[in-house]
Amino acid sequence: MSKLITLLHDVPLFQDLSVAELETIVPLFVERKFKKGTILFFEGDAGEEFYLIHSGVVKIYRIDNSKEIILSLFREGDFFGEMSLVQKGLKRSATAETLEACSLYTLMRSDFQQFMERSPRLCLKLMEVTMERLRKANEKIYDLTFLDVRTRTIKTICRLAEEYGQPKAGGMFIDMKLTHQQLANMVGTVRESVTKVLQELQEDEHIAIDKKHILIKDIQAMKKQIY
Ligand SMILES: Nc1ncnc2c1ncn2[C@@H]1O[C@@H]2COP(=O)(O)O[C@H]2[C@H]1O
Predict the structure, then answer these.
(1) DSSP 8-state class, residue 91
(2) Please, which residues have CB within 8 angstroms of residue 188's CB and are 6 or more apart in sequence?
């Protein structure tokens, strides 16, 4: 349990909770481990649990006729699965799948709801995170409507660098293994188009790719291409 308390202290959603509130909620979480490639739930399923990531990466996506669009990637400290829990009868709005072996903490729907009813602080935090996710979703709608594939690809790489980037000799290293297909599913295009843009970016020495990891050599120079 102590590792959960440490995790909760670092998770913005739970940071403002009092010690008493934390002590109430911690025993309700159940730790579960999942292998890479496990579907946690499908879009349209009944929502039964709230998920908090202790380790690993989870992909949230929708699929249509085998075409996939990635809505978000979540990692340690992120939560998901809350949308279908806030109101009775709502179904899962997207599918969740582990991209790596994952350790997740789950909270049952009834516990999550009871805690929301009792804790205005948690509700406010949840609203803050939801607004931030809505802002990102709006940005994505704009990008898909107005921007070409090259610009969208560069923007996606820059966003990944902001969220998962680590400064490294020679640039900014994105600490996440991504295939061209996964990147294409984030950008909203076909794999061939993303491969072409990545090749151009490598030829122009903006990025280097090593074992599915992207290194951005000069993040400011990359950003200059889009803004
Ligand atoms: N656009 C989005 N951005 C980030 N997370 C999302 C988005 N859409 C759905 N999710 C998450 O994916 C989950 C799918 O199940 P739920 O609808 O229960 O809750 C959802 C959210 O936690």
Answers:
(1) B
(2) 69, 140, 143, 144, 152
Distance (angstroms) between ligand 1 centre and the Cα of 164 equals 19
* From 93, 104, 112, mutation site for ligand 1 pocket: most ligand atoms within 8 A of C-beta: 93
Strands 171-174 and 213-216 come out as antiparallel
Strand partners, 165: 174
Q: Does ligand 1 lie within 6 Å of residue 71's CB atom?
A: yes
Terminal Cα distance for the chain, rounded: 46
Q: How many CB atoms neighbour CB 208 within 10 A?
A: 15
Check if 54 has its Cβ closer than 6 Å to any atom of ligand 1: no
Structure-token pair, residue 167: 């400064």
ipTM reported for the complex, 2 dp = 0.99
Residue-wise pLDDT for 36-92, tens only, equals 999 999 999 999 999 999 999 999 999 998 899 999 999 999 999 999 998 888 999
CA–CA gap between residue 17 and residue 132 (Å, rounded): 20
